[in-house]
Design goal:
2 strands; globular; mainly alpha; single chain; about 110 residues; two-stranded parallel ribbon; DNA-binding
Length: about 110
DNA sequence: GATATGACATGTT
DNA sequence: CAACATGCCATAT
């Protein structure tokens, strides 16, 4: 696969995939990458979301790391925002791996 | 090209 | 459970 990123094909499919996460469910960077058809591109999923505008329809807050935690620096604005929204959608403050597995979203678009 | 850097993941200590 | 080590791969310097 060489650099698909030039055409932003990867970016589009990733955002589409994330948009498909049902409310109340969660997913991880790795799972999104995989579902999008790019295994091992977990870091890049993060890179894409990082450059995402603050106000967007993309449910970026439903994407967390494999530990079940927000991948932000504690105390940062986005970190709180994510936790806030997740709590809002009915998730416990601290997500264990078991919990994460239950609410996981493994579907292919 | 070489090195450093990431909203990551997984396996060992 | 936490800290560390490796693997991963595009981007930036």
């Amino acid at each position: 696969m060489q650099s698909h990123f030039t055409e932003s094909e990867f970016r589009d499919i990733v955002l589409t995939t994330i948009s498909a996460i049902p409310e109340g469910k969660l997913s991880t960077y790795g799972a999104i990458a995989k579902a999008a058809g790019y295994p091992r591109y977990a870091r890049h999923v993060g890179q894409i979301l990082k450059n995402l505008p603050a106000h967007t329809g993309i449910p970026w807050h439903r994407v967390i790391n494999s530990k079940g935690t927000s991948s932000f620096a504690p105390g940062s604005e986005r970190h709180r925002a994510q936790i806030q929204r997740l709590t809002n959608e009915g998730h416990p403050a601290s997500l264990g791996k078991a919990h994460l597995k239950k609410l996981f979203w493994p579907e292919i678009v």
